[in-house]
Amino acid sequence: MTDPRKKVTSLKLWQGKVEPQPLSGGITNVNFLVEDAGRRYVVRVGDDIPIHQVMRFNELAASRAAAEAGISPAVVYHEPGVLVIDFIEGKTLGEEDLRRQETLERALPLVIRCHRELPKFLRGPALAFWVFHVIRDYAWTLKEGDSAHASLLPSLLTLAQKLEEAVGDVSMVFGHNDLLPANFIDDGARLWLIDWDYAGFNSPLFDLGGLASNNGLSPAQEDWMLETYFERPVDDGLRRRYQAMKCASLLRETLWSMVSEIHSDIDFDYPAYTAENLARFQAAVKEFQQS
């Protein structure tokens, strides 16, 4: 495999000699900060990842559309396995940031813009992201890979089926589908939403559930989020379908980490991430079952 740093250094885009600096925090791709001719760029290095259903043509199309919609920084250059975007000077958010109501009130409009405006700029083939298909596919991958977590799969798949039934019929939007806090950047004037690896058509409830579960939103904040998004009071039916999808988003993140434990070469503590998300999932399911 080509050394990622050498690959970045050799890109024809650069006007002079560059010294790529690794960016920490990526758990799907290898990322670098590059300065060239007075400008700074983020270079994302990664091929297709079929086991995670990540296809780079889809990421590129979503990244371009997000930039056109004013959601994400501009795409500057691409070639197979490499995506170069403008660097945004700002703060990468953490969970505690998004739990602040004032920050949440800045983040939700960005998600709404993604769902409602980004498709107007989307070109070419685009993927769908149905979390329950992803969950079932991850289960097969874990079985085939003799995962240490294989014994948990029958009960998790049974729960997933019940959650899918509870979600019921859905409307369709173009979702980001990976609303971790680190995918939001605050430049001091506005927020940006980055990293479109998992983008695709989906129910809006998945992004809303992910925004809540990934950042530990309070029940009151969840109700505010749903009422603001749907522009109506939250009834019991919507709340239950939303809670089911929130559980599914946590289960998907858990299984994603389990798969990464046996397939990823990135230096990251996937077992700890698995344990954290499994505990969150179990707590969410308990709340859902008591509702």
Task: Summarize, please.
This protein has helices spanning 4-9, 56-68, 95-98, 101-116, 131-144, 153-167, 204-215, 219-230, 236-263, 270-290; strands at 21-23, 30-36, 39-45, 75-79, 82-86, 91-92, 173-175, 184-186, 191-193, 200-202.
End-to-end CA span: 50 Å
SSE arrangement, N to C? HEEEHEEEHHHHEEEEHHHH
Number of helices: 10
Structural class, judged by helices and strands?
alpha+beta
Strand tally is 10
Gross morphology is: globular
Strand order of the largest sheet: 1-2-3-5-4
Portion in beta strands: 5-15%
Helix content: 40-55%
Topology, please?
Blueprint: H1 4-9, E1 21-23, E2 30-36, E3 39-45, H2 56-68, E4 75-79, E5 82-86, E6 91-92, H3 95-98, H4 101-116, H5 131-144, H6 153-167, E7 173-175, E8 184-186, E9 191-193, E10 200-202, H7 204-215, H8 219-230, H9 236-263, H10 270-290
Antiparallel strand pairs: 1-2, 2-3, 3-5, 4-5, 6-8, 7-10, 8-9
Walk me through this protein's architecture:
The chain is 48% helix and 14% strand. It is built from ten helices and ten strands. The strands form three sheets. Strands 1-2-3-5-4 form a five-stranded antiparallel beta sheet. Helix 5 packs antiparallel against helix 6, helix 5 runs parallel beside helix 9 (236-263) and helix 9 runs antiparallel to helix 10. The longest helix is centred in the C-terminal third of the chain and has 28 residues, at 236-263. The model has no long low-confidence stretch (mean pLDDT 95).
Observed structural traits:
291 residues, alpha+beta, five-stranded antiparallel β-sheet, three-stranded antiparallel β-sheet, 10 helices, 48% helix
